[in-house]
Write a structure and sequence with these properties.
Elements: E1 2-3, E2 9-11, E3 14-17, E4 19-21, E5 24-31, E6 55-56, E7 90-96, E8 103-109, H1 124-128, E9 134-138, H2 143-147, H3 163-178, E10 184-194, H4 196-205, E11 216-220, H5 230-244, H6 260-288, H7 302-313
Parallel strand pairs: 3-6, 8-9, 8-10, 10-11
Antiparallel strand pairs: 1-4, 2-3, 4-5, 5-7, 7-9
């Protein structure tokens, strides 16, 4: 049974009205940053504009545009009512219906290979369960719109790098400013992520700008090999622009105006070419490598093997 009589909550940008369902109170689709569209595309998030009236917080916000590996709708996560949009920076909160305050807060960061994912796929109430914690999920940019780094290219000084990470920090700052209004303790925030979300957690642990935004961290199955330096990011950005039809290392002015589908289609083409090059490099490496024959130490004298075994026992 759904009730919309739950108490409205005042946030730093305005009042929001959630709903109660099956013993849980929910607030969904609250903007934690301004829409990163138009001139804000490929830029760090900025604070959301305040609103005057009570804002309904009933439905999930749109999911971020994904960059799937294949052109298949089955690989594209769905947002609220199947929507995807660049205007995706929203946060969701759930708690058990009670009057408790200073509750622990758990924040979930979704996985999806940094290509797909949406907070609507992971209802915050599942984080709460039978406990008295506050569950929080939020959207952040993914794929080409969240990880393409144009800042290192000529003409790219108006853009920012590590956009998904900046979104995550902006959401954690919003939580620090507002979670007490929902009954949570801003000094008792745990971030939890799985797979690419786990990588986000370990990255946040190493990011100075995230210091003080959470007290604990849980990282499940983080892919440590998905951390790259600036030189590779710059090279990939240059190659990606070529796929879009722009030669050279200059960022075209019209990249703000290209449809998201155009950007994503080019990213998928770039990914296929990169994957093909990676397979070629691996074949080249295997052609140079030969495994040692089985029982390769048969030719070692019995005395040598005995000495080696004795020395191994001396290792700490």
């Amino acid at each position: 049974m759904i009730s919309r009589s739950t108490t409205a909550v005042q946030t730093s940008t305005g009042w929001v009205q959630g709903f109660t369902e099956d013993g849980f109170e929910h607030w969904r689709g609250i903007p934690y940053a301004a829409p990163p569209v138009g001139a804000r595309r490929f830029r760090a998030p900025v604070a959301a504009e305040p609103w005057e009236d009570v804002r309904p917080a009933i439905a999930y916000g749109p999911a971020p545009w994904p960059t799937p590996l294949r052109l298949s709708s089955r690989r594209v996560p769905r947002g609220g009512r199947g929507r995807v949009s660049e205007d995706c920076l929203t946060i969701n909160i759930a708690r058990r219906h009670s009057h408790a305050t200073q509750r622990p807060v758990i924040v979930y960061l979704y996985g999806g290979g940094n290509r797909t994912g949406a907070s609507s796929l992971y209802p915050a109430a599942r984080l709460v369960g039978d406990t008295d914690v506050i569950g929080v999920t939020f959207n952040f940019r993914i794929g080409v719109l969240g990880f393409l780094d144009l800042a290192g290219l000529q003409g790219g000084d108006r853009f920012d790098s590590n956009l998904a990470l900046r979104d995550q920090i902006a959401a954690l700052r919003w939580i620090q400013e507002n979670i007490a209004q929902f009954g949570g303790d801003p000094d008792n925030v745990t971030i939890y992520g799985e797979s690419a979300g786990g990588l986000a957690v370990t990255t946040l642990l190493a990011t100075p700008a995230a210091a003080g935004l959470f007290a604990r961290a849980v990282s499940a199955s983080p892919p440590a090999f998905h951390v790259y330096g600036r030189d590779r990011a710059r090279r990939w950005a240059t190659e990606y622009l070529k796929v879009l039809g722009f030669e050279g290392a200059n960022v075209p002015a019209e990249i703000d105006r290209l449809p998201p589908r155009t950007l994503i289609a080019a990213a998928m083409t770039f990914d296929r070419r990169t994957a093909a090059n990676d397979r070629h490099d691996k074949r080249q490496l295997r052609s140079r490598w030969r495994p040692a024959p089985r029982n390769a130490d048969r030719g070692i004298s019995r005395r040598t093997r005995s000495s080696r075994a004795h020395s191994d026992r001396d290792l700490p």
